[in-house]
Amino acid sequence: MNISIDVNENNAVSEIKVSGEIDAYTAPKLRETLFPMSEQNGVKMTVDLSDVSYMDSTGLGVFVGVFKNVRSNEGEFKIIGLSSRLQRLFDITGLADIIDINSQIEGGVQ
Amino acid sequence: MEFREMMESKYRELLENYIREQSEQALYAGQKFSRKSIEHKVSPEEIVSLHKSLLIEMYPEVPESILHSFDILLEVMIGYGLAYREHQSLRHQQEELRSEMEIAANVQQTLLGTKVPVIQGLDIGAISVPAKHMNGDYFHFVQDENNCISVAIADVIGKGIPAALCMSMIKYAMDSLPENRMEPSGILENLNRVVEQNVDPSMFITMFYGMFDPESDQFYYASAGHEPGFYYNAEKKEYRDLNARGLLLGVEKRTKYRQYQMEIHPGDMIVLMSDGVTECRTEEGFIERETLIDYIDKYIDLSAQEIVNNIFKELEKLQHFQLRDDFTLIILKRDV
């Protein structure tokens, strides 16, 4: 079980590309990368999960924590590239209603 | 005689034997000796110094340089000896933790214990199995004075001890809710406030709360981000998802939960589960919800408890008896 996290910071937007599996073993690494970023004032973060093959509820916990941090620091948080399985996870948990997910895809061009 | 007292003569014998004839047996005796000396906590540097002193005794003419070389070997071995003793003491601590954990798991069982109610007209089956020692899933039944049966099924995001501790808090929050006239949506709204205030910000709980009124055969339910269950329509022999929208507990303080309602006819079933059931990973990938329906169908003529037991056995087998996540499955079946 592996995860790789690429961070690309430009134009005040942090793009984070995650690849691999997000579960109880890899989630701490994701948290360590994302939490410090999410605590910056007015941060803009976009997390791309299109190369994530599996995510369990531990991963969801990390994103909710990041989302709450970003919101309290008046930043923006977006998740893109969700597969239908991952999208379902966000739908069931009601998070799709409060977190900006897959907005690029909904825009129609992909 | 104590091992330490005869250690010297034993080692001397080994050494002499091997020097005389370099046989496999002599080497094997060396292996046996090392097991014994480990057992009696003899450090590696002690063996080196024993070797050195025996060598002087047996071969007084041994060159000084060879003897000096043992001092280096001795120094190097001291490090190994320390590492070994540390390993032993960690093993000891691990034993202690393991037994504490077993006690904690028992305490949790007692704390979170719930009785499956027995009422006329409704057959109830429930199973909950932790992946590790402590269970992050939770289910609870309440029967009120109007004979309404309430069922809660919850899953803490995260596993192991933190999840289990969190669950105990939820249980007490639920116990302290005013008992009468609580509807599923109201209960979730109350619990949401408790979780939002008291739980670590990256820990969340999903919960499904349902209430069956045997007077009117109505089932009321609401969900806080929980894996949807199934409703089985006995007349049409059809399954459908028991969809209910609602946010996880503990994310937003003022979340409102929508309450749903449906009539349960004779033979109908409500199937509730934790995501450990659908996130059950096999070699071919995840089990699909359809697969789960096939299993329910296979055992549908059994009692509710037998159905959940059998499904657990099937899914356990699919995962080669290695649960990755806590597993909880509940079936409510209205008698025909």
TrEMBL record, chain A:
The STAS domain sits at 3-110
Q: Does the keyword Cell membrane apply?
A: no
Keyword check for Zinc-finger: no
Q: Which InterPro entries match?
A: Anti-sigma_ant (IPR003658), STAS_dom (IPR002645), STAS_dom_sf (IPR036513)
Q: Which UniProt keywords apply?
A: Phosphoprotein
List GO molecular-function terms, semicolon-separated.
Answer: anti-sigma factor antagonist activity
Any matching Pfam family: STAS
Q: Which family does it belong to?
A: Belongs to the anti-sigma-factor antagonist family.
Reported function: Positive regulator of sigma-B activity. Non-phosphorylated RsbV binds to RsbW, preventing its association with sigma-B. When phosphorylated, releases RsbW, which is then free to complex with and inactivate sigma-B.
Q: What is this protein called?
A: Anti-sigma factor antagonist
Q: What is the lineage of its organism?
A: Bacteria, Bacillati, Bacillota, Bacilli, Bacillales
UniProtKB/TrEMBL annotation, chain B:
* InterPro entries to which the protein is assigned, alphabetical: Bact_Sigma-Reg (IPR052016), KaiA/RbsU_helical_domain_sf (IPR017944), PPM-type-like_dom_sf (IPR036457), PPM-type_phosphatase-like_dom (IPR001932), PSer_Pase_RsbU_N (IPR014787)
The domain of life is Bacteria
Query: What are the recorded GO MF terms, alphabetically?
Result: phosphatase activity
Show the SMART domains listed in the entry.
PP2C_SIG (SM00331)
Q: Does the keyword Cell membrane apply?
A: no
The chain positions of domain PPM-type phosphatase read 123-334
Q: In this record, what's one Pfam family?
A: SpoIIE
Which UniProt keywords are present, listed alphabetically? Hydrolase
This protein's name: Phosphoserine phosphatase
